[in-house]
Design brief:
two-stranded antiparallel sheet; alpha+beta; globular; 60s Ribosomal Protein L30, Chain: A; 2 helices; single chain
């Protein structure tokens, strides 16, 4: 017998519109768990990539976008339990880490960092998170 899993689709007007077949976030039933879509450094007002060659500027915008999706779900960075980081150039990890540490100061979430060949819209970094409501 199939199990019905309730899913709440999360969408924030303060984060960029999705550019493909995915949601900004999904909260699953059975204890609210939010799975965000990967965010790149798109400014939701202009729908343009910020700092096309600046991984720091893009990373900062990624965290602004993630904050908007978390807020739309009634959550915050303190509830993030896992983070996935995708970089076009793994040597940018030091820059990304400096910005990352501003959002996860104590007990940072589990994390995976992967170098990829390319990202949508020519982005240099993409980040997704999983957050759990207590």
């Amino acid at each position: 017998m199939p199990v019905n899993i309730l899913r709440e689709i999360i969408s924030s007007p303060d984060a960029p519109k999705v550019i493909g077949p995915y949601s900004q976030g999904v909260v699953s039933s059975g204890g609210r768990t939010l799975f965000t879509a990967g965010q790149i450094g798109i400014d939701p007002k202009s729908n343009e990539l910020v700092g096309p060659s600046d991984v720091a500027q893009q990373t900062e915008q990624v965290f602004v976008n993630l904050a908007a999706v978390l807020k739309a779900a009634g959550m915050g960075f303190d509830q993030v339990v896992r983070c996935g980081i995708y970089l076009v150039n793994l040597s940018d990890i030091g820059i990304v880490n400096r910005i990352y540490e501003q959002f996860f100061k104590v007990d940072p979430p589990a994390r995976t960092t992967i170098q990829v060949a390319a990202l949508p819209k020519g982005a240099l970094v993409e980040i997704d998170v999983i957050a759990v409501e207590p």
